[in-house]
Structure prediction request, 267 residues.
Amino acid sequence: MQDAVSFIKDKIGNFSPEIGIILGSGLGSLADDYCEEAVPYSEIPGFKASTVAGHKGRLVFSQICGKNVVMMQGRFHYYEGHSMDTVVYPVKVMKRLGVKTLIITNAAGGVNTDFKPADLMLITDHINFMGANPLIGQNDDSLGVRFPDMSEVYSKELIALAEVCAGRLGIELKKGVYMALTGPSYETPAEVKMARTLGADAVGMSTVPEAIVGHYCSMNILGISCICNQAAGVSTVGLTHSDVIIAADLAKQKFITLVLAILKSIK
Ligand code: HPA
Prediction:
């Protein structure tokens, strides 16, 4: 970890990121538009290579709307076969770089029947249905406590701020509970019914590990899902990764406009 942090600090000099953004499917272009310094994951000690199409695999540093930002262009998913440690390692590195606020974005399936493709959903809470927890193992007391409270993972202040920004921009936002499953298979209709019964509004394959660790190490967390499709059984048609990418692309401009407004407004 110390090697990773020293390596990155060598690259970015006195640039000190205060906000981290994990860019989900379709949002990666934010890091192409704002890129002052980019560090490929393959060069950073302890980072693994990203294997998913549409996920580039680098840390991108830039000042955006007056804020010093580090973006993950591409993330590590549990379904790629990475350990939970690998999935959340970048969050711990961001913490060590001084990041205080973490914006986590993703593509998700809509479980709530009011949701339609290209809707944006603020995550109010999550259900960890991955069957694993990224904090299992020896605790690093310098990051957080052994049994961290999870009663407010997603900052109410940041949710309120995002709603104000969206209101000003005329962007409609949904709010709801995100359930993470491992993937990579999409859910069956029965699983989606279960997710709804358990209180989920959206399902996906990421975000929860990073949110748990970010909150554990005292970051303020904002989670935003791009609802790319109606989850299995809600929709009568089958689901492909390219459908998800197309919907993410449709929502991209709105998503980026919102994230920029949020960056500007964060104190
Ligand atoms: N399920 C799980 N993950 C997803 C989905 C889905 O329907 N859409 C985009 N990511």
Remarks:
- The radius of gyration is 17 Å.
- The chain has one domain: 2-265.
- Strands lie at 19-23, 37-40, 58-64, 67-73, 101-110, 119-128, 173-180, 202-204, 220-230.
- Residues 2-265 form a domain with the Rossmann fold fold (CATH 3.40.50.1580).
